[in-house]
Amino acid sequence: MRTEISSQGDNYLEFWNEYHLCTLTTLRPDGRPHVVPVGVTVDAEAGAARVITRKSSRKVANLQAARPGQARVAVCQVDGGRWATLEGTAEVLTHPDAVDDAVTRYRQRYGRTPAPDPERVVIEITIDRALGHVDAPKPMKTNAAA
């Protein structure tokens, strides 16, 4: 079975493996969007994306306020003209094995291990839509000090 991500092609998944800061959009109980910067890891085989965070965060509260199975979210990353968005439903995972796996995936993508945090949980997104444009040229690096 092809996942929504794999239907986008190899370049799409490669883009999600590059080092980029992302955004996570959740919905507040009143329907207003809450957008925050996060690190995201993508597991194409499982059709999932994961974000590590603290259980006391606003994003977790937004997800817990939604009806079970109905917490809609989006994660996005941009690099010049290249961009990708993953949409789906999210749940908060607290099991230590799930948290450890998410931290390992974060370390693999971002090259650093976050400091231990007893409040850490995982937002796991079951992806049902993938969109974007990743075939544009990578932006040129510029030297801001001239």
What does this structure look like?
A seven-stranded antiparallel beta sheet has the order 2-1-5-6-7-4-3. The mean pLDDT is 92. The protein contains three helices and seven strands. Helices cover 21% and strands 38% of the residues. It is an alpha+beta fold and 146 residues long. The chain has one domain: Pnp Oxidase, Chain A, CATH 2.30.110. The protein starts with 9 loop residues before the first helix and ends in a 13-residue tail after the last strand.
**Which regions are unreliable across 5 or more consecutive residues at pLDDT < 50?**
none
Q: Could you say how many structural domains there are in total?
A: 1
DSSP summary, beta strand count: 7
How far apart the termini lie comes to 52 Å
Helix amount, in percent? Answer: 10-25%
Strand content: 35-45%
* Overall body shape: globular
> What oligomeric state do these chains adopt?
single chain
**What's the rounded overall pLDDT mean?**
92
Biggest pleated sheet: 7 strands, antiparallel
Supply the CATH class: Mainly Beta
**What is CATH's topology name?**
Pnp Oxidase, Chain A
Any idea what the CATH superfamily is called?
A: Electron Transport, Fmn-binding Protein, Chain A
Instruction: Provide a count of the helices.
Output: 3
List the secondary-structure elements in sequence, H or E.
Answer: HEEEEHEEHE
